[in-house]
Amino acid sequence: MNILTFDIEEWFHILDNDSTKTEKEWNNFPSRIHENMDRIFSMLEKTNQKASFFVLGWIAEKYPEVVRSITDKGYEIGSHTSYHQLVYEQTPKDFHSDIERSVKTLEDISGKKVTMFRAPGFSITESTKWAFETLIDLGIEIDSSIFPANRAHGGFSSYGEAKPSIISLEGVEIKEFPINTTKYMGKNIVFSGGGYFRITPYQIIKKWTEKSDYIMTYFHPRDFDPKQPVIKDLPISRKFKSYVGLKSCESKLLKWMDQYDFLDISEASQEIDWNEVNRIIL
Ligand SMILES: [Zn+2]
After folding, report:
1. Cα(207) to centroid(ligand 1), Å
2. Residue 120 Cα, ligand 1 centroid: separation in angstroms?
3. What spacing in Å lies between the alpha carbon of 95 and ligand 1's midpoint?
């Protein structure tokens, strides 16, 4: 099962960096969202694939037409928070009000119930399990915020096998679609989104796709945008990861979408027998 998802944010929503941290800084940058959304829609239309879109509330409030174009074209939406902050840097109270605002914004614009969520930078960790209670409390039924390996912004390395699971805590439950990993030279490697996808040659992606029975992708509008400005104060290693492979990413993803079938999250959820999956008790 291969699942296609996009996190809808601007090219400058780069985490953990002073010049791109909050709304105050974001307002100084030129927008590229419309041009980049057109590119994503065109890839989906060319290959006749479905996808789920996790939309940032800040984008939805500023450009409601982006949300309308996603839902008018028949794609489903979920929340990617309102203000793109790392979960483990927020208090439970701040996280609650941020998610509540994003869900309300997306529901008001789309007229559809929002039941899916992805955290910025996959930043739900072992130390912020409380985030799941907040999500369930606000009507979220499906989460896709678990990165079951070590990572700069979080990661949940004790999660276990990277497969759809039920997370259970304090007597409530949520369905989890983690990012998938593949074993390579003894390590758990991620290849299905962002900088990892851009840097991995297509032949290797193809090989790893064929040996995976579950793939959860995560792309951003900026992954396909070689014309985006460069954030000058990023450390060298982050600069590399943020800007490597932008030119070839569109054709690489098109090739992948041409060759394999992808589902959106709702379709995938319907195919899964949730009584049979792993239960993770937190
Ligand atoms: Zn994001």
Report:
1. 27
2. 4
3. 15
C-alpha of residue 56 to centroid of ligand 1, in Å:
8
CA-based max dimension of the chain = 49
Each residue's pLDDT, cut to its tens digit, for the chain (282 residues) gives: 999 999 999 999 999 888 899 999 999 999 999 999 999 999 999 999 999 999 999 999 999 999 999 999 999 999 999 999 999 999 999 999 999 999 999 999 999 999 999 999 999 988 899 999 999 999 999 999 998 877 667 778 778 889 999 999 988 999 999 999 998 888 888 899 999 999 999 999 999 999 999 999 999 999 999 999 999 888 888 888 889 999 999 999 999 999 999 999 999 999 999 999 999 988
Q: Is the model's pTM score more than 0.90?
A: yes
Starting at the edge strand found earlier in the chain, the sheet holding 165-169 runs: 5-8, 52-55, 76-79, 116-117, 142-143, 172-176, 165-169, 278-281
Q: Which of 131, 105, 106 is CA-nearest to residue 119? A: 131
Query: How wide is the angle at C-alpha 53 spanned by C-alphas 270 and 222, nearest 5°?
Result: 145
What's the 275 CA to ligand 1 centre distance in angstroms? 31
**Tokens standing for 54?**
């996790």
- With 0-12 / 13-18 / 19 or more C-beta atoms within 10 angstroms meaning exposed / middle / buried, residue 187 is exposed
Contact (CB, 8 A) for 8 and 38: no
E-strand ranges in the chain read 2-3, 5-8, 52-55, 76-79, 116-117, 142-143, 165-169, 172-176, 182-184, 187-189, 215-216, 278-281
